[in-house]
Amino acid sequence: MSSYRRDLRRYVQFLGARGIGEPSGVAERDVTEFLMRLREGDADHPPLGAGSAARAVVAVRGFHRFVLREGLATTDPAAGVRPPTPPKRLPKALPVHDVTRLLETAGAPGTTLALRDRALLELLYGTGARISEAVGLDVDDLDLDAAAVRLRGKGGKERVVPVGSFARDAVSAYLVRARPQLTGAGGGPAVFLNARGGRLSRQSAWTVLRSAADRAGVTAEVSPHTLRHSFATHLIDGGADVRVVQELLGHASVTTTQVYTLVTVDSLREVYAAAHPRARG
Question: Which residues are catalytic?
Fold first, then answer.
């Protein structure tokens, strides 16, 4: 609420500087000019991004709806002014060399948990699974002979995705050499176990990822979806069809997946700008 109050104070000051003291004296062009001022900034305020400017316009529109409802004006000058659309946020993907370093340094060398951590991260990057899908895996979901895994996504929807050789080898090594030492007396169906023999939690899996990134010296921000984003981006960079990537990720709509094509276009633009003799002025 404090941000809305601040936006409205700035709006009232803006109107006052234009000699407008009553809501009934505001015209649509005044609201439009206020939006332009937000985006451009002035001597007292830096330019606002689309998201912050949109928030301010929403506050102004709410103010004028209130004024109209209370009978303090006969028209709503802000009704036709649309907030700017924030730019679509692109998924953050790591470069291939950063992913390789992260995977190769996962886990403290020579420990049982190192085998688990390497298997977990290789599987995340090798299948594009969400962290929640990976920690939810049961042993029966794995078919390493067929190099496939069954993932349970949002809404309980299942999909079967291929598993690459690096992930398959890492998971096999974990299942044979490490998991039996973690199962405890009763065992259990979970593939990935914690040190007490229970199912690894999503939070613990995130910690595994962050620790691996720190150990590898990866300075980029790493989140639970980092390897999933990297999986999709690297596939499309390599020429994979967006609808195939959609199926692998378990997206209900290809529109969701198409955001990864924007990452590739952005990369192409950078290469073009650096390499083409007439790309720069």
Answer: 130, 154, 225, 228, 251, 260
pTM of the model: 0.65
CA end-to-end distance (rounded Å), the chain:
46
* Dist. CA 144–CA 163, nearest whole Å: 8
The residues, any chain, with a CB within 8 Å of residue 154's CB and separated by 6 or more, are: 250
Under the banding of pLDDT at 50, 70 and 90, the label for residue 82 is: confident
CA angle (235 as vertex; 230, 241 as ends), nearest 5: 135
Residues 6 or more apart from 99 whose CB is under 8 A from it? Answer: 125, 227, 230, 234
Please state, in angstroms and rounded to a whole number, the distance separating the CA atoms of residues 127 and 248: 7
Tokens representing 13 are 């000051």
- Per residue in 199-248, pLDDT tens? 999 999 999 999 999 999 998 888 878 999 999 989 988 888 888 889 88
Cα distance between residue 204 and residue 198, in whole Å: 12
Residues 132 and 135: their CA atoms lie apart, in Å, by: 5
DSSP type of residue 193: B
**Which pair of tokens denotes residue 6?**
């601040």
The residue to which tokens 């300075």 are assigned: 219
| Paired tokens of 154 | 């949002």
Number of neighbouring beta carbons within 10 Å of residue 159: 16
One DSSP character per residue, 196-225 reads: TSSBPPHHHHHHHHHHHHHHHT--S---TT
Q: Are 50 and 36 in contact (CB under 8 A)?
A: no
| Cα–Cα dist 120/228, whole Å | 12
Rounded to whole angstroms, the Cα distance separating 146 from 238 reads: 24
